[in-house]
Amino acid sequence: YLPGIGQGSDWTYDHKIEVYYKEEQKYAGIVDVNSQYGNYAMTLFSSGDAWDTSKMYTIANDDSESTAETGTLVNEQAKNIPAPAAGLYLFDVSLKELTYKIKQLEITSIVIRKEGDNNLYPIATTGTTGEYSGTITLSQDSNWGIKFYIKDDWTGAYGGSNGKLYYNSNDGIPLTAGTYTITVNLIDCTYSASNK
Question: What pTM value is reported for the model?
Fold first, then answer.
């Protein structure tokens, strides 16, 4: 959870990133940043859980090197992490290495890559922040599955299953031959594929 990263008069726990490499304690996600306070923390607990500083990540009180884009974490309640300017960002965090990297994204569309096809098929924003939708036709079953890439940013892909997206997943989303309306929400890490 990223309390302090969004709007609101108090620290809410409505923004989070998901684990994508459990053994290495790596988390990532697309976050709509608009920090009222200009700083935030990372926690492994939400507002309904007991306050636990052993599950809190900030930067050291004497840290003058960490920025809004990259830095070193400490596993305690210390100085809050500086928040970037408002916008859509890809967060990539390692709790094992105690590091974070944040990259601003200006996404107008994302692209789909189909199995056995090197072409990229764009789907456009719906107007809802982080949500994209479009149509794709598969001439044959896609056993390895389709994946979603952020256009012009090849640092990671989203695969998934059962309506849930996973960052840097080895598994694509298997689909049978047909024409589909695809809707993806990168903030909620969800997708739908409706066969027409």
Answer: 0.84
55 — phi, psi (to 5°)?
Answer: -115, 30
- Residues 131, 119 contacting (CB under 8 angstroms): no
SS3 annotation, 45-113: CCCCCCCCHHHEEEECCCCCCCCCCEEECECCCCECEECCCCEEEEEEEECCCCEEEEEEECCCEEEEE
Return the structure tokens found at 7: 């709007």
Is residue 23 helix, strand or coil?
helix
Assign residue 130 a region (left: φ > 0; alpha: ψ between -120 and 50; beta: otherwise).
left
Distances 18 to 26, 27, 36, 103 between C-alpha atoms, Å? 8, 5, 23, 16
Average pLDDT of each block of 10 consecutive residues along the chain (196 residues)?
81 87 93 91 87 94 96 96 93 96 79 72 87 89 82 71 89 89 92 90
Buried b (16+ CB within 10 A) or exposed e, 18-30: ebbeeeeebbbbb
Two tokens, residue 97: 């290495």
Question: CA–CA distance from 120 to each of 9, 50, 62, 102, 161 (Å)?
Answer: 42, 46, 46, 25, 20
